[in-house]
Write a structure and sequence with these properties.
This protein is of the alpha/beta class. About 35% of the residues lie in helices and about 30% in strands.
Length: about 240
């Protein structure tokens, strides 16, 4: 079943009389439970596409339906509410707040949604423990490794039980070994909870974890593939021998 349905998506940026067409009529679907990756070179439109999909930016034309809601028809306030209730975000630079502990970082978006502090902290601890991060609950970002910081960021994105996680180059700041560890973590969550991930990346190695790969170039779809199963780190390494 399609969780995300994109039809004839276009994005045109205008500067004075100049126009630049960043997205040129894309159509595709993301199914619930996908480990869906968007791959393309720098300047191909990956980030623009992710911003439009998540409602951060408005498309020039076309439609984006998420969980049976046409997000283009939502007001700014409605989009903010819809994102908070249905989406989680993971970034290359983690975006953790240095002066907050891991628990406080995970609790922060829950507090922003109006959850009581005690309940938000309890939920943060629950999520971190469930994700094997009990040892970092009271530590600050500077006290933990890059891989642990990204896992905390993923835990934060999942704390509100979103329908979909958008991840923009989540392994871009990590070495190969740590990238595999983070991808193992996301794959486990994807398979255990049927959690939907849409991941923008340029890294061919982690693309092999996906069950669906959308390759784009110059704002257009170059290819789209679906696979029978999602690959683990062991599958990836075996395939490279």
């Amino acid at each position: 079943m399609a969780l995300v349905k994109v039809t004839n998506l276009r994005k045109v940026y205008k500067t004075g009389e100049l126009e630049y067409e960043a997205l040129k009529g894309m159509s595709f679907e993301v199914e619930a439970g996908d480990m869906f990756m968007i791959l393309g070179p720098s300047g191909s439109g990956k980030t623009t596409l992710l911003n439009c999909l998540s409602g951060i930016d408005d498309p020039t034309a076309g439609s984006i339906w998420i969980n049976n809601v046409d997000i283009a028809k939502l007001s700014d306030d409605e989009k903010t509410k819809f994102r908070a209730e249905n989406m989680g975000f993971v970034f290359q630079a983690y975006n953790l707040i240095d002066v907050l502990t891991a628990k406080e970082n995970v609790a922060l978006p829950l507090l922003a949604r109006g959850m009581a502090e005690k309940e938000a902290n309890e939920r943060a601890i629950e999520v971190l423990r469930a994700h094997g991060l009990e040892h970092v609950i009271d530590k600050f970002p500077s006290q933990i490794s890059g891989g642990e910081r990204q896992r905390v960021a993923i835990s934060r994105a999942l704390a509100g039980n979103p329908k979909i996680i958008w991840a923009d180059e989540p392994t871009g700041a990590l070495d190969t070994k740590t990238s595999f560890m983070v991808m193992d973590f996301m794959k486990e969550l994807n398979e255990r909870n049927n959690q939907t991930f849409v991941i923008v990346t340029h890294d061919e190695k982690i693309v092999k974890y996906a069950n669906a790969v959308l390759r784009i170039d110059s704002g257009q779809i170059a290819s789209f593939e679906r696979f029978e199963r999602k690959k683990s780190r062991e599958d990836v390494l075996e395939g490279e021998k």
